[in-house]
Amino acid sequence: MLRPFPHPISKGDKMKMLIKSAFLFLLLIAPAPANDSPVAGVWTAELNEKPFIKLTVNDNGGKLSGNMVFYMLVQENGDWNVKGDDPVCLINPRLEGQTFVFEVVHAKKHGSVDPADQEIKTFRMQLTGKDQGVFKGAANGGDVVLTRKPG
User: Fold this and answer.
1) Where along the chain do its domains lie?
2) How far apart are the first and last CA of the chain?
3) Does the structure show a pLDDT above 60 at 94?
4) Average pLDDT over the chain, rounded to an integer
């Protein structure tokens, strides 16, 4: 059973409740502030018109984390095909000035899962723009340009 308020609501109280409700509604529908992290996001590069690198970086209040996929490209009958896409976790990801530095466990021999064939390898991505970076030594010792996808 509904009970009436113990005292009548004045016009001023109604206005205050309306303003508070409108303010709360605006807070709920307002977009969250964008992450201003220079490295957070999904960075990608292609080689031979195929995916080559996918670097996913998370920034949780300055604590960086993420993973990386080095796609294994194999040429078959003159065509390039993607054969591998296993993500590996970033180890000790950090910003050193305008360079994003991290390590990953990397197989010395492609496809090997033997622990004796694994090594920790350090990679660097020089940030060259808001959504662009140069990944040092990624393609046979050469540099590769990565682009961050808006999102």
Assistant:
1) 41-149
2) 49
3) yes
4) 78
**Distant-in-sequence, close-in-space partners of 118: CB < 8 Å, separation ≥ 6:** 105, 106, 107, 108, 112
CA distances from 148 to 19, 23, 25, 48, 68 (A): 41, 35, 33, 19, 13
Q: What is the mean pLDDT of residues 83-111?
A: 87
The pTM assigned to this predicted structure is 0.69
Round to whole Å and give the CA distance between 69 and 131: 19
Instruction: Check pLDDT > 80 for residue 7.
Output: no
Q: What is the bridge-based pairing of β-strands 87-89 and 91-96?
A: unpaired
* Angle of CA points 80, 44, 144, to nearest 5°: 75
Q: Based on C-alpha coordinates, what's the Rg of the chain?
A: 25
Torsion of CA 150, 137, 110, 149, to 10 degrees: 0
CATH class, range 41-149: mainly beta
Q: How many Cβ atoms are within 10 Å of 32's Cβ, its own excluded?
A: 5
DSSP per residue, 70-130 = E-EEEEETTEEEEEE--EEE-EEEEEETTEEEEEEEEESSTT---GGGEEEEEEEEEEEET
The mean per-residue pLDDT over the stretch 126-135 comes to: 94
Q: What is the mean predicted confidence (pLDDT) over 100-107?
A: 88
pLDDT of res. 132: 96
